[in-house]
Target: 2,3-diaminopropionate ammonia-lyase
Amino acid sequence: MFLLNRHPDHRQPLAEEDAATLGLAGAEEAGRFLAARDNHAETPLHALPSLAAELGIGALHIKDEGKRLGLGSFKALGGAYAVMHLVLEEAGRRLGRAVAVEELPKAEVKAIAAQMTFACATDGNHGRSVAQGAGLVGARSVIFVHSGVSNERVAAIARFGAEMVRVAGDYDQSVREAARVAAERGWIVVSDTSWPGYERIPGLVMQGYTVIVREALERLPEPPTHVFLQAGVGGFAAAVAGHLAIALGNARPTVTVVEPARAACVYETAKAGRPVTIAHSKPTVMAMLECYEPSLVAWRVLSRIGDAFMTVEEEDAVSVMNRLARPAGDDPAIVSGESGGAGLAGLIRAAGDNKVRAALGLDANSRVLIINSEGATDPGRYAELVGMAPDQVANARQPA
Model:
């Protein structure tokens, strides 16, 4: 399915609060927080000339967030960033002065953090980030996971010291349960989705993601003309698209939002022109994108700067995993998890459809940016789908 944005807000400026969250100053602050962390190396940006030629476009670059902060996902930038921010704010209130990120290791700040509990719901990656962030500052974390989250992903979160709570049902039900229990017990919910009256913390999570764009723009030979961004609740797509729009202004790229056909809440929201909750379908292999209700903040951004919305099928996601693991020509091998390559799956599907190509202005001069949003966050599942272990792929062929 493919849909151009017909919303009356399309191409209107971002709302003032969203421009502040996703703007240059916010991205700079997120960068400062990142620099204060161990293992904060910039993630690689790969050129894939062979695949670009095959798709009939001028250039294709993939930013590989599978290398981010040892967590294997772009979400390492969001939840942990919000946790650190909230601890510093609380420390500032209690100490009666501004507290800098460099002060997080100090005993007086650690003592305050130790009295704070952070909770969230997750499909896997966001929970790892919140748990890691809480561990970094010495706070407690309680992570709610639904029945579809694999035991391997649960164990990966628990390794950071989080208390794990299983919830019957799907992701959206786990979000509601996390919010209910946190309200009862005075915990702080760090969610990557937003709802009426709860926007600021998801905004901080999104602000953390702007680091990806800053790094990419510094490395790209020319700014992209197109981006294909995968969406679950839409926060990642909105953060990347929003910062690109602010950084590049009228030269911003055409933004296409890509979702699994089985969980296309942002697509259906775009179709309806307002946020909608969709019916549950069969589980999708793109488990990190399996969401049935969009983030309100994300939709407010995407209604303005999302130019098109589309869906991809289960086999598209698996095909991309295999294509990146076994590249053609001199393209590098990239480990991409089940949800990580959904944006590329969207590009491949769009490039193969003449009507969609024309609608998006995809041609031999197009410069496309894709974000590989996760590596093999469930190595066993990855090996099952690709026929190779993640380490085999990672060591197969890398650029000189």
